[in-house]
# Entry
Amino acid sequence: MHSTDETCALEAQSVSKKYEGAAVNALTDISLKVQPGEFYSFLGPSGCGKTTMLRIFAGFEQASSGNIFVGGMAMNGVPPNKRPVNMVFQSYALFPHLSVLENVAFGLRARGGRSKSEIFKLSDEALAIVRLQAFADRLPAQLSGGQQQRVALARALVMRPVVLLLDEPLSALDVQIREEMQDELSRLQKQLAITFVMVTHDQGEALALSTRVAVFNQGRIEQVGPPREIYEAPLTDFVARFIGRSNVLAASVQDVASGVATVRLSDVEGAPLMRCLLSPDQPLPVKGQAVGLCLKPEVVSPAVRGHSLASGNFDGNIGQTHRNTLVCRLESSAYLGSLADLRLQIAGSEVILRATVPQALLGEISSQGNFDVSIDAADLRLVEVSKN
# Structure
């Protein structure tokens, strides 16, 4: 069996997975394509199915239904050691009694067909790629966490895989080493031009490294796209909440005209109408539809001494003003260095709105009772309410 698109590095066609005795599927009808040379990430919370999907590609799990392809060739039933992919595990899985060089060479020796000198040469080259030649004779216990991770990468890369699969590769590292390893992964992927597919629950990691991101939720893919699109143009309330720090307010559509949706907040008594500029990429909402009104904390502008902090412009014709106004009061604040993270309660409700403002303005905001906040219509986005 061949893929319908033989140019893909990886492809899943309607893949589902249900474990025996489980009440729900681990995966339901997953279809995706990974192009050669991509750095593609599976992103989502624990238990969403992303690692199961990776293990199915690797051959460590079998799909209950659907088809898997690598380089256009069907992989259903093909054992892991016969697939042109290699996997870097979360735990690294290094052999503690073998040296760094011996760990890297292990897979080549197990596969057979190469001389000792060729195995040594290829393993040494792999260590050079991850800049660990000087540590070839050390044992894994003599290395830092970041160095052990690089050994695991070298051991996978020496096998010359078509696709490198990475299962939460940086989760065991502390923050500073994790950031260094992000740079290392990016460098390696660009240098070697190998397709990387990474599982992560860390949105910052996925956004920083990936060419495309698939956001998983409860065994399904909610959205696939480049990092900027996933962050700035979420399609569902789940993606909006999971990526970045978005406010997602329950609302209902009152009117749609000339590329602008007019909505009313559902949980705010006497809420004013809010106008939202619709993007060409999103489905057109209909009157009466329940939606999520998505906005980032940085676009919420509290008024200070009667003047809004914002100075955005809007060219669309949506009436007398391009700005929406809500009445709020400050509930609490958190110090973020030069910025302050505000929790604002919308008047007439228990609804909390997050805002990020310069720390220098916090004193003036704190001294007020109720005050206006303004939000540009172009900074609002309607998102679907997730079915899961």
Remarks:
- Residues 31 and 168 are 21 Å apart (CA to CA).
- The chain is about 25% helix and 35% strand.
